[in-house]
Amino acid sequence: MEISSHAFMIEVCYPRDEKDMTLHLYDTRRKEKVPFQPAVPGKVQMYVCGITPYSPSHLGHARCYIAFDLLHRWLEASGYDVDYVQNFTDIDDKIIKIANEEGIDFLEVANRNIEDYYRVMDALGVERADHYPRVTEHLDGIINMIEILIQKGHAYTSSDGVWFSVSSAPEKFGTLTGNTIEAVQAGGSGRLDKSDKREHNDFALWKAAKPDEPAWDSPWGSGRPGWHIECSAMSLHHFGESFDIHGGGFDLRFPHHEAEIFQSECCTGKEPVVGIWMHNGFVRVDGEKMSKSLGNFWTVTDAFKIYDPIVLRYALLNAHYRNPIDVSEQLLNDAKGNQRKISETYGQAIVSAEQGEALAPLPPLPEGNIESSEFLIQRIGIIESLAEEAARALDDDLNSRLALSKVQAGAKIISEVLNSDQIDETDTASFATFSIGWMEEIAGSILGVLPTKEIAKAIYDPRLDPKRVAIRDEVEALLARRSIARHAKDWAAADEIRDALTEMGVTVKDTSDGAVWSLD
Ligand SMILES: [Zn+2]
After folding, report:
1. b/e for 264-298, b at 16 or more Cβ within 10 A?
2. Ligand 1 (ion): which residues have CB within 5 A?
3. Are 348 and 403 in contact (CB under 8 A)?
4. Centroid of ligand 1 to alpha carbon of 372 (angstroms)
5. What's the confidence (pLDDT) of residue 514?
6. How far is CA 28 from CA 47, 65, 70, in A?
7. Minimum mean pLDDT among 75-79, 93-97, 462-466, 506-510: which range?
8. How far is residue 493's CA from residue 284's CA, in Å, rounded to a whole number?
9. Distance 154 CA to ligand 1 centre (A)
10. Which pLDDT value is given to residue 27?
């Protein structure tokens, strides 16, 4: 039978039937799932708050950037042209503190942690954003924005910098959190501490230089920008006065994102600055908040020592992005088992398809064809509907947990068919090719939880491990020589060969069927 891979996903994903399938995303501002409609049809402008690179990336970062990576991939698979901006806050109190402690330049601290970020996110399959603006490269835009806010009466200067006056736009207070200005004022009584701001809620736009701190010139003396204004200035630079999606961790809703709303909307006069505000949930470890003092703080590099990056990605996607996730040994081991299952099936499909290529000129077996097509058509039907269900799950505010369960269900049927004796070899090969396309589309390009072809084959059949294949001839020759030495009772020679094999990372087991070897 003729089966084309890929064709069905293109129909499922894009273009959508407007009434039937539309991507819905939860907007923190409107507090509901809303149909996604970008300002310019077919194009998406998306900004996600990036890291403050004062320390290596941790599990919370992994979760956030994997969640928005999935959104990025799904928007592109749906046919949108996505412009993705993610910043680096490369100047900050914590960066300065570490630089001073180590006696090095603050940019050295920032750069080494930005390198760590790229390294671990690449390993986690997080596709790169289109732009990674850095605060230290956007000082002009930041200063310009602050000047406009002062001119419009939304900001004021003081002895210690420039402050945004929250009471100049009280209607914008609590846009994302629903907090009232009164409640925050009541909770913050007596916290005006050392600063020279007028009201407790006012936040810094520009911080006057302190000794031993990097500083830039400005109309208000030398200093450096406050954290919130940076994101407003960088999104304005890349997208203009409004854009489609703004993302970040749940903890950034207040004050960071509400401050961005104050700054951007008061500066440009355009509201809302953001179409949809998206926030990912917290990461907990063994039921507790991750913290250095509790000793359960995991950097991504720590996690890689125990778990494969793809397993970590699988585990973090196996929960809805808005829900909190509790990282535990059980969660990671479950992910390991599930990720292995789909890798094994993928590996088996690749091997079956390759065997089919070798058999290609063989005519189809005469019997069995009718039965085998009925058997196949029914299963292909199920697998195609699973792809559609996975697409619907992702359209429903990125329900990656449900989408992964559809992938598992599909892999199970694929494995059943590949192991079935009801179909002939050519149909098996043809089905294998279809299955490879199905898995690469959903589990690979969209969810990012498939290994490479070589790794998948080695998981399915360890004898196909490329490392093993590379040394196979040499190992077989050494084993043959060892066997001769043993027959001749030349134990010294036999031991010498065994040592050589150990050095190559080869473990030899003597069985009644002869020597069996494996790679460590
Ligand atoms: Zn930000």
Report:
1. bbbbbeeebbbbbbbbbbebbbeeeebeeeeebbb
2. 49, 231
3. no
4. 57
5. 80
6. 15, 18, 18
7. 462-466
8. 56
9. 20
10. 98
